Amino acid sequence: MLVMKFGGSSVADENQIHKVLEIARSRASRRPVIVSSAHKGITDALLNAGKAAAKGEPDAGQIIEKQRRVLKGCGCDHDMLDPFFREIEDLLRGISLVREASKRSLDYLAGFGERMSVRVIADYFTRNGVKAEAFDAWDLGFITDENFGGARPLPGYEARMLTEFKRRVGSDVLPVITGFVGKTSGGELTTVGRNGSDFSATCFAAGLGAEECEIWTDTDGVMTADPSLVKDARSIPYMSFAEASELAYYGGRVLHPSTLLPAIKRNIPVRVLNTNRPQHPGTVITEDGGDNPNMVTSIAYKEGQAVITIESTQMLGQPGFLAKVFDVLGREKVDIDMISTSEISVSMTCPGASNLNGAMKALEQFGRVSVVTDKTIVCVVGKNVKKQRGLGAKVFTALRDSEVNVEMISQGANKINLSFLIDDSDVKKAVPALHDALFEG
Ligand code: ASP
Questions:
Q1: What is the span of the domain harbouring residue 178?
Q2: How far does residue 38's CA lie from ligand 1's centre (Å)?
Q3: Residue 11 contacts by C-beta under 8 Å, 6 or more apart in sequence?
Q4: pLDDT digits (tens, 9 = 90+) for 240-281
Q5: Which atom of ligand 1 is nearest to the CA of 38?
């Protein structure tokens, strides 16, 4: 069995969905299972409509118009999704009455995108000669916790998926399953978080014991750097789970950070492919990752970071000082990435400063606290990083030559990444310069 996940741009319209049909046909002998995102732009439209409704302006017009365009392009019955449209309108009206879009209602709203797209895709496939059936993920065992906006499947999901799959999916149909959404055991709709359909797909791959999980997107696999910044960025043929996890976490745009966990647990290879160039071999991600002749594997970056610094003489020779600091940060739900300490100060990065007020106040008990924003973590990843003599010199020479100032530096604990902090405004200089030094030099 082969699990294939298609992202929003891969199922954007009839033209793209036709490519998906041909790809599925070419893999018919491997018993494909499709996990799909919403059509491109629909999730954003749903969430924007939710925010407008919370301000008293319920308007489903844009969503319905976008979805109708795909419906029409694919030749589906024009009223096929009318019950969903009515439900979206009702929900937006409800949100506008209470003037509040809770995480729970936003999940309910955002989930319509995938619920509609899988029905369009299955209908299109069936009319074009591939018998397919749409499934909501929860009917196939994707039951989650109640963490709305970032739900995770309840333990034992693998066995549950397999049982439900065997019970509900006929051997002669190609199942098209919703990515992104789940339900709690109490029946409330949840989502796994933005861009989370990859994660849904690897959960299904793990549950169904797939031979491989293919992630179909719009680039030729995972690239050596963001191609919108580096025109010579190239596709990476192989990489390890550990490398891919670091890249996803540090802002690599192709995979969602949680994607690999279910695949790692069951040792299922994940292959990233391009729907627009299906003949390209893409990137295969496995436990071992194969041989990589390059010094590093890829360069990722995460913009919009904030740095919290605490300066305090209380730190001097005080066991437990950092434990107290992290206790506060944990309680205030501040997610820390890079850390660097000296005898009298500690600096930590986190994703943005929008929710730091509470933490700042609480941290003042330890010393002088300051926050700076608009910083970027750049991360050079590769399993060869740990044995590479002169890598640091190459990286920092390239940065010096392009006049980029470096603030914090950290060599990841697992020794496969070298990360540092720069100004957001320097990213466009730094990433191409590094790529040049590490891949072209
Ligand atoms: N449709 C959802 C989003 O746009 C999930 C996904 O595409 O992976 O975030």
A1: 2-217
A2: 6
A3: 17, 20, 36, 37, 38, 39, 40, 117, 121
A4: 999 999 898 887 777 888 899 999 999 999 999 999 999 999
A5: 1
